[in-house]
Amino acid sequence: MASFLTKALGTVVVVGAIGAAGFWFVTRPQPLPETAFADLGAPDLKNGERLFWAGGCISCHAGKGAGDAGDLTLGGGEPLTTAFGTFHAPNISPDEKAGIGSWSLADFGNAMLRGVDDEGHHLYPAFPYGSYARMTPKDVNDLWGYLKTLPKSDKPSPEHELSFPYNIRMAVGGWKFLYFNDKPRVELASADEKVRRGQYLVEGPGHCGECHTPRDGMGGFLKGQWLAGAPNPEGKGKIPNITPGGEIGSWSEADIAGYLETGMTPDFDSVGGSMVEVQKNMARLPAEDREAIAAYLKAVPAVK
Fold this sequence. Notes:
The chain has about 300 residues and is mainly α. It starts with a helix and ends in a 5-residue tail after the last helix. It contains twelve helices and five strands. Helix 2 crosses helix 6. It has two domains: about 35-180; about 195-300, Cytochrome Bc1 Complex, Chain D, domain 2 (Orthogonal Bundle).
């Protein structure tokens, strides 16, 4: 009997060890090798600035109204309160100690494309790398080059305020296993180059789906509900459905592009809520980018 119990216990230990090893293997951080960011050449700073505004970096990583005042110091922005806890957007200025000035291009690229920091730890998906993963290494290089031209800030980044189990970073690996990929969010029938550019901007650097797509209880996007509207992540009101079946379904491409440029709807109403900052960023893009975004939003599947 004792021999049987010993063997059974040994089996349980072995199975448990195999299971733990399998869980670690599946959920471990998986950065890209440095070679993925080699031979990209000097960054195109003009394109880097374009991506900076497309991504709305200033909206999260700078103080409120900083862009309006011409201050591009990315010392950290307003706290983001969610059902999982409060996240603090970090200092991403080129300061070598408080910011990310000591990072390499590969460090920055892995944060953007793989959600892994310079020390090899998972980043929480409050930082929208789930969208940025669709960016090209060249664009990452250009954005990194532009960020390094901005003012330094020695403001320390506060720790996130998360309760158990959300404070366990390894669990982010499980979230990535379930939800993280770099595939297109939707398959488009159109091969139009403008629509494809819009898809890249919306699904990638623009990360529009992070607010406009509903999520399940674990924070992953609901299948078949891309851009169909969602509760405001900050707790007040609703982010609208921006598919052709939603609130802006009657708008033309020109209406959408004009709204992104001026903040005025076709009915002469003005932009409001959290979209105010987004629209200000979009207004800084070249007209062809706003037109591409509009073309994409008219081409995505309609969701009622």
